[in-house]
């Protein structure tokens, strides 16, 4: 049994932390360096404004106390007016700073999310299909999709908040250090239990998400199936939406109940851990105001010291909680950096394929089974195709026909044997260049919600502006008239969800997909059930044109319709992972084997 291995980090935790931080700082700076610096500067300013507010409040209280009972109120009122004006300016500046910081932070988060969606899509498509298809990878990737975009900014934001925490500590410690430096140390010690609890909770949160990953995936799939418009017809006919809703409710309840208990424990732990801080605040408050009553310090000084203690506690808490936040988000972001650092395991070669074929395609004793499965899908398959030959593959579903195409495309590597193109093992080619040779229409082709022109032109993005050539292939596959009849013709969206959008039928989609692959103008053309939704008469016309178009190419056709297959130069009959017959139509009929038997069954269906 072939077990797929998921790549893991091999560096030490400390090294991994700094590598992760370096990577996300690089991403954030790349996304918008100015915005990152602005947010950091604004947070620094916020921390700096704490100290003047403290001293303004102290001075106001002391002036009021000294002026009680005096006959000259004009002088103190002038001073009080100036101080209140200054405090209003500082408070306005803090409010404005907070508003600016809020929208800049949100903008930065949105830009990072948008960047990661693009970068993640590119990375995902660069990876090997066996890795991407594995359940372990899917669990981890779905968690990355849910968590990492926000978590990445959750690591950056505390860093930008660091100056605020430092200046808040400075603002709180300056008045205290001249009065009694030991108070500062006591405040720090009392803050530690809250920090320790938060760090432990962060780790447990990450572990909990690991447990819930498969359930999250199923939640997402069921929800998508209920809201995707392409599923509505079957949902309505089968009347299965209530069943899906009940199944979704069960999974949601399991997740929500699990999360509720976890958050309840977290809230309880954090509440208990914060009690020492409240007790210290109460004790110091009584102490400072008792000193004021005894006349040892002024009431303004008592207020200053009390607020300084609170600021110091807030500063320590902010600084250490920022560190915890970095740690908490780091646990999730390690998954993102793991993903971004992944490299294909099917190593690409360096050879550049030639556009001139002296040899065609050869499967040499190919054995293959899918990862994490026991059964062989292909068993010693050997055959060759000439550089200008068209070949048909026929056989029952599951015989191994589409698997051959996946191996030819380099999506998987044979367990034994090799696949040669133009006499060279395909994995010796640079894979991006090699796939330029291929034009493959799979059964599960893509339905793009773009314009009709773009939906065909995306087959070769280098020629996507060549409208006349796009129309040529649309005409060849018989979809030109349909497109010309649309409100915006080739500029019409192919999805009802968009303005004036039209949803093509399955047959029309298939013709569009076929036109897209033909527009690619590749050396090797592979069509897997390309006209299964097209009527027989139109299919006949389309294939006559395709065979003519592919006269200088390699054409591989997979079809269950023998009326189409019989036109091929050579036919391979595949059964249970082996080639059991081969020859042209007439030769195989004369053999009176499996091909002749299936052909006769189809022929009876038309009698």
What does this protein look like?
This protein is of the alpha/beta class and 607 residues long. Among the domains are: 13-341, ABC transporter transmembrane region fold; 446-521, Rossmann fold. Helix content is 64%, strand content 9%. The protein has helices at 13-31, 33-48, 50-67, 74-126, 129-133, 135-179, 181-227, 232-238, 241-293, 299-341, 401-408, 431-435, 452-457, 467-476, 480-484, 506-519, 536-549, 562-565, 585-591, 594-605, and strands at residues 361-368, 378-385, 390-394, 416-421, 424-425, 438-441, 524-528, 554-558, 570-575, 578-583. The strands form 2 sheets. Strands 6-7-8-3-9-10 form a 6-stranded mixed sheet, with helices on both faces. Helix 3 runs parallel beside helix 6, helix 6 runs antiparallel to helix 7 and helix 7 (181-227) crosses helix 10. The radius of gyration is 35 Å and the shape is elongated. GO terms for molecular function: ABC-type oligopeptide transporter activity; ATP binding; ATP hydrolysis activity. Keywords: ATP-binding, Membrane, Nucleotide-binding, Transmembrane, Transmembrane helix. It holds the Pfam family ABC_tran. It is found in: Cell membrane. The chain crosses the membrane at residues 165-190, 272-294.
């Amino acid at each position: 049994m072939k077990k797929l291995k998921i790549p893991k980090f091999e560096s030490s935790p400390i090294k991994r932390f700094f590598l992760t931080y370096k990577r996300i700082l690089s991403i954030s700076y790349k996304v918008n360096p100015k915005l990152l610096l602005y947010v950091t500067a604004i947070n620094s300013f916020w921390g700096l404004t704490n100290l003047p507010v403290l001293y303004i409040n102290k001075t106001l209280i002391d002036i009021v106390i000294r002026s009680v009972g005096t006959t000259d109120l004009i002088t103190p009122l002038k001073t009080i007016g100036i101080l209140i004006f200054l405090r209003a300016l500082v408070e306005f500046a803090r409010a404005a700073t907070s508003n600016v910081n809020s929208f800049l932070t949100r903008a930065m988060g949105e830009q990072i999310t948008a960047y990661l969606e693009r970068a993640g899509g590119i990375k995902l498509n660069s990876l090997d299909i066996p890795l991407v298809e594995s359940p372990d990878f899917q669990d981890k990737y779905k968690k990355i999709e849910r968590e990492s975009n926000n978590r990445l900014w959750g690591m950056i934001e505390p860093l930008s908040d660091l100056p605020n925490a430092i200046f808040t500590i400075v603002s709180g410690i300056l008045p205290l250090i001249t009065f009694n430096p030991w108070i500062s140390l006591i405040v720090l010690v009392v803050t530690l239990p809250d920090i320790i609890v938060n760090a432990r909770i962060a780790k447990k949160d990450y572990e909990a998400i690991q447990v819930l990953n498969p359930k999250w995936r199923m939640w997402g799939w069921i929800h998508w199936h209920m809201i995707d418009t392409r599923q509505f017809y079957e949902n309505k006919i089968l009347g299965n939406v209530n069943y899906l809703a009940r199944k979704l409710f069960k999974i949601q309840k399991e997740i929500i109940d699990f999360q509720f208990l976890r958050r309840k424990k977290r809230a309880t732990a954090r509440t208990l851990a914060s009690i020492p801080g409240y007790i210290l605040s109460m004790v110091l408050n009584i102490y400072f105001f008792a000193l004021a009553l005894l006349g040892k310090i002024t009431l303004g000084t008592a207020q200053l010291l009390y607020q300084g203690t609170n600021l110091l506690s807030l500063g320590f808490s902010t600084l250490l909680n920022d560190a915890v936040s970095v740690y908490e988000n780091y646990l999730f972001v390690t998954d993102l950096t793991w993903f971004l650092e992944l490299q294909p395991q099917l190593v690409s070669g360096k050879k550049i394929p030639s556009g001139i074929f002296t040899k065609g395609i050869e499967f040499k004793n190919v054995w293959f089974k899918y990862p994490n499965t026991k059964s062989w899908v292909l068993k010693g398959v050997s055959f060759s195709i000439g550089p200008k030959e068209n070949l048909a593959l026929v056989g029952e579903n599951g015989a191994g026909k589409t698997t051959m195409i996946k191996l030819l495309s380099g999506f998987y590597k044979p367990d034994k044997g090799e696949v040669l193109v133009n006499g060279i093992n395909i994995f010796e080619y640079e894979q991006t260049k090699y796939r330029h040779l291929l034009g493959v229409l799979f059964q599960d082709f893509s339905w793009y919600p773009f314009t009709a022109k773009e939906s065909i032109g995306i087959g070769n993005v280098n020629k996507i502006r060549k409208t006349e050539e796009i129309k040529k292939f649309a005409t060849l596959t018989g979809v030109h008239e349909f497109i010309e009849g649309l409100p915006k013709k080739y500029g019409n969206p192919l999805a009802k969800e968009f303005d004036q959008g039209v949803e093509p039928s399955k047959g029309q989609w298939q013709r569009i997909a076929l036109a897209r692959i033909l527009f690619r103008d590749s050396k090797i053309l592979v069509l897997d059930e390309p006209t299964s939704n097209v009527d027989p008469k139109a299919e006949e016309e389309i294939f006559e044109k395709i065979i003519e178009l592919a006269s200088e190419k390699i054409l591989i056709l997979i079809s269950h319709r023998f009326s189409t297959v019989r036109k091929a130069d050579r036919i391979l009959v595949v059964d249970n992972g082996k080639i059991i017959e081969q020859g042209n139509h007439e030769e195989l009929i004369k053999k009176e084997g499996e091909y002749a038997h299936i052909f006769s069954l189809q022929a009876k269906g038309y009698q």
